[in-house]
């Protein structure tokens, strides 16, 4: 848990640094866009002023480039407004200057259009009158001087020359030029004097310092993130090495635990065999008695000249029974390999009961009720399941007194089989039920058992993917119910 906590803490730190770095990087990116927009604004303002001068001197035939420049300035101001941040007041000042310049530009365009149209008409009319009225040349010269320098003195010269030309329409257009051109010059001077470009240049200088600080901060966060990531990677490699060592120790401990459990299981088997010794000895005594009796009979038949085929056949049958009994004992006592086999539950239970039945007191009645189909099988470990049955039946035999009954029942269940061992003995003290399956927690009288039987039973049942339940009433008996699944186990 501590390792996981440290990993989570390190990840949280990295996430925090990454967030700060991304925030600083975004700030730097926004500041870079702001600086780029400022540069573009100054450039577009210079282009606008250039084109205004070209319009004034007649080098531009239309207003397309002027209109494009004023639209570009508006777009630049939109970018500046979006990324202004703390410089919002300065950007607002630029907006006001640009708005004033747009208004004056409209005045300039209107006056320029009138002057240009009147000048075009005047030039055309002068060409038409030049052959008939020689005084037109003096008017043209005076007007040309006024167009270059529209001051009051040159305006008076134009009017004096105009008075000698008797053409009312020409006089109207020349008077319009004399009236509007000084206004046009004043508007142009106002446009060129508009401090939009210089103000943007001063703001760019201020912003450049802020941009440099932001870039330094972003670099600091980038360096911090790199160092933190390197430290986290180093710690992660160290933690993974520790985890690998811990996993090796855990596997070794699990191996040792499994070995200890197998030893305990084998020891409990030996304990069960010891408890069954009297019954097994009784069975062998009966077998030996039969062999002795038939041996005597065979000897008598030989002495009488008869062939002792019947007696020898009986002896052979008895020896076969003995070998079968020894084989079952050896199979039960052999250390389990843990291998899973397909088994018939009824046959496993019957064989286990054949072991334990001879060791039971004669007053104890042991019944087996099988409700499983004859061909019912499941995956399991036969030796372990036999040990479960033997342990439960022995416990039941210890619990009954006098004329007691033990009933072992096998029946199908929804997910496998149900095995019940029920007795009508003294029952279990309710105080012992919570610790019934704990190792060495025996509820039997002193000298009856080690307290390991039920713990081993529970482990075997759990190892088969099943579960065990117990119900008991003091003085009325106990029922152990085992639920074993039918699905195959891991081999």
Number of strand elements? 7
Nearest-angstrom radius of gyration?
Answer: 57 Å
Q: Can you tell me the overall shape?
A: rod-shaped
> What percent of the residues sit in helical stretches (DSSP H or I)?
55-70%
**Number of helices in the DSSP assignment:** 12
Give short descriptive properties of this protein:
491 residues; 5-stranded mixed beta sheet; rod-shaped; 3 domains; 7 strands; alpha+beta; 9% strand; two-stranded antiparallel ribbon; Heat Shock Protein 90
Folded structure, characterized:
The structure is a single chain. The chain is an alpha+beta fold and 491 residues long. The chain folds into three domains: 2-210, no CATH class; 276-334; 337-491, Histidine kinase-like ATPase, C-terminal domain (Heat Shock Protein 90, 2-Layer Sandwich), CATH 3.30.565.10. Helices cover 69% and strands 9% of the residues. It contains twelve helices and seven strands. The protein has helices at 2-56, 64-82, 88-129, 136-148, 152-163, 168-193, 196-275, 277-303, 309-333, 345-356, 382-399, 453-463, and strands spanning 341-343, 365-370, 378-380, 405-413, 416-423, 467-473, 477-485. It has a five-stranded mixed β-sheet with strand order 2-4-5-7-6, with helices on one face. A two-stranded antiparallel sheet has the order 1-3. Strand 6 and strand 7 form a beta hairpin. Helix 1 runs antiparallel to helix 2 (64-82), helix 3 (88-129) packs antiparallel against helix 6 and helix 5 runs antiparallel to helix 6. The longest helix has 80 residues, at 196-275. 24% of the residues are buried. The mean pLDDT is 80.
């Amino acid at each position: 848990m501590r390792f996981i906590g440290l990993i989570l803490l390190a990840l949280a730190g990295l996430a925090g640094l990454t967030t700060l770095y991304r925030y600083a990087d975004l700030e730097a990116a926004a500041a870079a866009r702001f600086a780029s927009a400022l540069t573009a604004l100054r450039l577009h303002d210079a282009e606008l002023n250039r084109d205004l001068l070209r319009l004034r001197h007649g080098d531009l035939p239309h207003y397309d480039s002027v209109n494009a420049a004023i639209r570009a300035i508006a777009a630049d101001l939109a970018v500046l407004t979006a990324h202004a941040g703390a410089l919002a007041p300065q950007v607002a000042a630029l907006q006001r200057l640009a708005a004033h310049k747009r208004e004056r530009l409209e005045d300039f365009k209107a006056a320029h259009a009138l002057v240009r149209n009147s000048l075009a008409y005047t030039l055309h009319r002068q060409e038409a009158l030049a052959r008939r009225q020689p005084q037109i040349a003096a008017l043209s010269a005076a007007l040309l001087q006024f167009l270059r320098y529209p001051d009051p003195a040159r305006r008076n010269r134009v009017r004096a020359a105009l008075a000698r030309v008797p053409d009312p329409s020409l006089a109207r257009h020349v008077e319009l030029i004399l009236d509007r051109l000084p206004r046009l010059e004043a508007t142009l001077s106002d446009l060129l004097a508009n401090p939009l470009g210089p103000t943007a240049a001063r703001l760019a200088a201020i912003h450049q310092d802020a941009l440099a600080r932001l870039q330094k901060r972003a670099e600091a966060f980038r360096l911090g993130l790199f160092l933190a990531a390197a430290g986290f990677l180093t710690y992660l490699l160290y933690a993974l090495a520790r985890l690998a060592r811990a996993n090796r120790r855990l596997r070794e401990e699990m191996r040792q635990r499994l070995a200890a459990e197998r030893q305990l299981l084998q020891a409990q088997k030996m304990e069960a065999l010891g408890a069954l010794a009297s019954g097994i000895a009784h069975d062998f005594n009966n077998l030996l008695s039969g062999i002795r009796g038939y041996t005597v009979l065979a000897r008598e038949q030989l002495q009488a000249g008869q062939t002792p085929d019947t007696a020898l056949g009986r002896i052979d049958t008895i020896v076969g029974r003995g070998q079968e009994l020894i084989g079952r004992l050896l199979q039960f006592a052999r250390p389990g390999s843990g291998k899973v086999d397909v088994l018939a539950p009824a046959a496993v239970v019957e064989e286990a009961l054949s072991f334990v039945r001879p060791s039971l007191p004669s007053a104890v009645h042991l019944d087996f009720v099988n409700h499983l189909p004859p061909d019912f099988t499941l995956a399991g470990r036969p030796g372990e399941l036999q040990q479960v049955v033997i342990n439960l039946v022995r416990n039941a035999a210890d619990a009954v007194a006098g004329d007691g009954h033990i009933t072992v029942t096998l029946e199908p269940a929804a997910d496998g089989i149900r095995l019940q061992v029920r007795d009508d003995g003294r029952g279990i003290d309710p105080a012992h039920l919570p610790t019934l399956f704990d190792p060495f927690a025996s509820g039997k009288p002193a000298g009856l058992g080690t307290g390991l039987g039920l713990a081993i039973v529970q482990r075997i049942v759990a190892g088969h993917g099943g579960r065990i339940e117990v119900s008991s009433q003091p003085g009325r008996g106990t029922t152990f119910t085992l639920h074993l699944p039918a699905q195959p186990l891991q081999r």
